[in-house]
Design goal:
The chain has 2 helices and 7 strands. The chain is mainly beta. The protein has a domain of about 90 residues: Immunoglobulin-like (Sandwich).
C-alpha cells in the first residue's frame, strides 16, 4: 500500500503540513486518556484524566498552533514506598494541533480531570467575487 501524500496532490494546494500532522497523530500514545467534546456550535472541550496530578504538576503551552500538555509529578510523590501501585502517574506529553481560528479560552481542574476550553470564531464562508487586476 502506498503512503498518502496530500502535499503533492494537484487539487490540495497548501496542505503539505497535513502529512506531518497525520504521521504525528499516529505516534500519540494512549496515556493519559482523553475526551474531545463539542459543547456548542463553536466551542470544544478537551478533557484529560490526570488523577494524582496537581495543577503545579501540569504545564499547558500553545506553540505555533499546537496545544501541548505535559505532566510530571513532584519528587516527593516519586519517593513514596508502594505495596501496590495500580494508578499510573508517569510523566506524559500529549499534543493537539489546532486549526486556524481556534483559541484556547481557559483550563481548569475538577475531580481529577483537566478541562481545556476552546473556541472557534465563526468562519466567513460567504461567496465573494475576486477582481482581476491589471499588472
Amino acid at each position: 500500500m502506498e503512503k498518502s501524500n496530500f502535499g503533492n496532490h494537484p487539487f490540495l494546494l497548501g496542505f503539505e503540513r497535513l502529512d506531518t500532522l497525520m504521521a504525528r497523530s499516529a505516534k500519540n500514545e494512549g496515556y493519559p486518556p482523553y475526551n474531545i467534546e463539542q459543547t456548542s456550535e463553536h466551542c470544544f472541550r478537551i478533557t484529560l484524566a490526570v488523577a494524582g496530578f496537581s495543577e503545579d504538576d501540569l504545564t499547558i503551552m500553545l506553540d505555533n498552533g499546537e496545544l501541548q500538555i505535559k505532566g510530571a509529578q513532584s519528587e516527593a510523590a516519586e519517593k513514596a514506598t508502594y505495596l501496590h501501585r495500580g494508578i499510573a502517574m508517569r510523566q506524559f506529553q500529549r499534543a493537539f494541533t489546532l486549526a486556524e481560528g481556534i483559541e484556547v479560552r481557559h483550563a481548569y481542574m475538577d475531580k481529577g480531570l483537566l478541562h481545556i476550553e476552546l473556541h472557534r470564531d465563526a468562519p466567513n464562508n460567504k461567496p465573494h467575487k475576486i477582481e482581476i487586476n491589471r499588472r
